[in-house]
Amino acid sequence: MTGLASLLCAGLLAVPASAADVYISLAGSSAGQALPLGLPPFTANDPGSVQDAAMAQQTREVIRADLMFSRYFRIVEDGPTPDGGQVSAVSREWKLRGAGWILTAKAAAPGAGSAAPKVSLTVSLTDLNSGEQVFDRYYQQDAQFWRSLAHRVSDDLVKALTGKIGIAHSQLAFANRQTGNKEIYLADYDGANLRRLTNHRAISLLPRLSPDRKTVAYTSYRDGNPDLFLLDLATGKSRVLSNEQGLNVAGGFSPDGNQMLMTLSRQKHPNIYVKGIADGSITRLTNHTGVDTSPTFSPDASQVAFVSDRSGNPQVYILDMTTQRAKKLTRMNWCDSPSWSPTGEWIAFAGRSRPKDPIDIFLVDVTGNQVRQLTHGEGSNEDPSWSPDGRFLTFVTTRGGRPEVYVMDADGSAPHRLLDAPGASSTPDWSR
Prior knowledge:
This protein has 432 residues and is mainly β. The protein has helices at residues 3-8, 50-70, 91-96, 146-162, and strands at residues 35-38, 43-44, 73-76, 101-108, 118-127, 133-142, 171-176, 183-188, 195-196, 204-209, 215-220, 227-232, 238-242, 248-253, 259-264, 271-276, 282-284, 292-297, 303-308, 315-320, 326-328, 334-340, 346-352, 360-365, 371-373, 381-386, 392-397, 404-409, 416-417, 425-430.
């Protein structure tokens, strides 16, 4: 058992309920709606440069993977490469292969001996039916962050052709114990660029990325007590955000990043609080003699979803921030780790219907009338977190033998391992 439940070690028992298996359709995800995009090889800015050619191939591979993951595109390949970027000369061949648009790019790697090495990419997207350029853009990035440049191109393509936000630039924070201690790690949404953020040599877990992706809040036993820290991603330095005696656990940032939902025990029963990041002001939201934990803001911050045992076993509740009234959404044996979807309709959570059931990922709508099961006993499945566009979920599963971070579509389909990180992983959080 991971998440806050393992911190509390609360033996919370059960009212069984059934959960329906229902498919959730995702706009733009079906093959019939996929946009046919021609993707010839990217070319070197300097045709004689081996480094430019390598950068062209690398950036194309990342962009191709991003676009395929998005489900918005059907990638068309094996067409002729436009000579000198002249798409009109090859447009007929690409249209015969089924492409509606074509993406061409020229890449430049850093020059030898550059004081501030940078990579650049000139990208053109052309509508093959009209012959018009959708955009023609120049990108430049520090060489060490060339993958970030490729992800930025992918997100711009998604925006240009669908009007929707892309997620290729997003990141995931999670805890992992490959060093023998639980530390906080960060990776790109596709599992690349894995790096360790903490080295406390203690239990550190439950990271929460700020909306601007500049800081990570997390709980650590570094000083003996489960204190809440805020880590600056630019400097790598952590500062204490809350170190009251007892639990200090991040729930989630407000959409504007100015407030933090928290679980504080204050040596008594854990309850939900909200704290101002800048001024340190703190307001109590629940006052329950049992356990209230795992708070998460709704997209407009008008409500908070959380877990409480006030009915005898842990269930998902929502709290209205104006009236302070709480409403129970679930009636299961056990629930934990709610995560409110960015689109507002659904709350993902880990749970089980009966005491002997494995832990699985479920969705509940904000009325509590619909409960949908996404995983079905393939190991233990916990700690769901939504992608920024609400179309995917990350979670931790033991289906491979040890707890690993996986990603799946929001209807439970296409689950796959995000990255092969040694050691047990837990409590992933997907940046907004």
